[in-house]
Amino acid sequence: MSEKTNRNSSIELMKVIAIVMIILSHSMPDGDGSLGASYIDIDSVTTNWQLLLAGLFKNMGQIGNDIFLVASCWFLVDSKQAKRSKLAGFLADSWFCSILMLIVFLALGYSFSLKYIVKQFFPATFNNCWFLTCFILFYMIHPLLHVALESMSQKSLLRFNIMFFIMYNCMGFIMGNTMFYFSELIGFCGFYFLVGYIKKYASELYMNKGLNIKILMAGIVLWLVSFAATDFLGFKVGMLSDQLMRWDTIMNPCFVLIGIGAFGLAHTGEFYNSFINYISSLSLIIYMLHANIIIRQYGRWDLFAWIKANYGYDKLILWIFAYAVVNVVMSVFLATIYDRTVRRLFHRGFEFIVEKI
């Protein structure tokens, strides 16, 4: 049996659900209002149920990221080396997705500056997809983290996790990730040591299905309560009036609980399905295709501008869902075609480059 079919499909299904959540979070024209007339404001408090629901959809992206991080760290804590072939694969897939989208949008009649075009040839270098660049750096240093993890006693590791949680998931989180020189890479490392403690010293407890359901439900309830409280208080406290998305970060303790509980729940189950495993194996490619910087900065704005001009936003949630479905279908389709055709060729080419470097 292949590696893809040997993998526990319960875990792989959770990763597929996570990527769908991430795609849904990216399927709306949120962000900087100066980018287009199609902009929707999900930062400001509101009584508009569609904007509130869109805000919750946006949160699902970071929740999906946390699920991916927990799953990745679970397997990386036992890894002692960063494989050149895997690093080359990340870079090759990233390059292909970036150039493919550049070609597609140029063919559609878009024009870009020379500087912008050059950046598409170096997507990891210029952080065109923040998660990929951060994950590559994290993957490269994880052998050093493994050495640190193995050198800590249980008490030392527990102390570290408690201090990290207080500094970054509590104090730093409340202050909008502006304290203690935070970066997403630091956050990834925090997940590594947290998951490392669970796997080394609490793995038997982590197999308790009831406990994971409680952790998951606690995270969901706290997330919804904090979101509703921010919206309610925003009408009474001026400084909170545009802070609905303030808590939209991988360091949100509610999202961390959801990630731990969701992965733990998947880990307690076991079944095998080759289709689920295959789609899961394409998850990072799917991520890079749908979250391509040209789509984020141009495509979605123009699409929603057309929707707004022709149909309005009375059925905004329906349009977000429709765009998300198209995103999922097209990303899976393109990822599959790439995987079945030129992916190995690209990987061999980038392995040669990485080896020479």
Q: What this model shows, in words?
A:
By secondary structure, the protein is an all-alpha fold. The chain has one domain (9-318, 328-356). Helices cover 73% and strands 0% of the residues. Helix 3 (49-76) crosses helix 11 (253-268), helix 4 crosses helix 16 (343-356) and helix 7 (154-174) packs antiparallel against helix 8. The longest helix has 28 residues, at 49-76. It starts with a helix and ends with a helix. Pfam families: Acyl_transf_3.
Please give a handful of descriptors for the protein shown.
single chain, 357 residues, mainly alpha, 73% helix
Task: Please provide a brief summary of the model.
It is a multi-pass membrane protein. This protein is mainly alpha-helical and 357 residues long.
C-alpha geometry: globular
Helicity range: over 70%
Strands, count: 0
Arithmetic mean pLDDT: 92
Strand pairing plus helix content: what structural class? mainly alpha
The termini sit apart by 34 Å
Write the layout of secondary structure elements.
Elements: H1 3-6, H2 9-25, H3 49-76, H4 84-107, H5 114-120, H6 130-151, H7 154-174, H8 184-201, H9 203-206, H10 209-234, H11 253-268, H12 274-281, H13 283-290, H14 293-311, H15 316-340, H16 343-356
Helix pairs in contact: 2-3, 2-11, 2-12, 2-13, 2-15, 3-8, 3-11, 4-6, 4-13, 4-14, 4-16, 6-8, 7-8, 10-11, 13-15
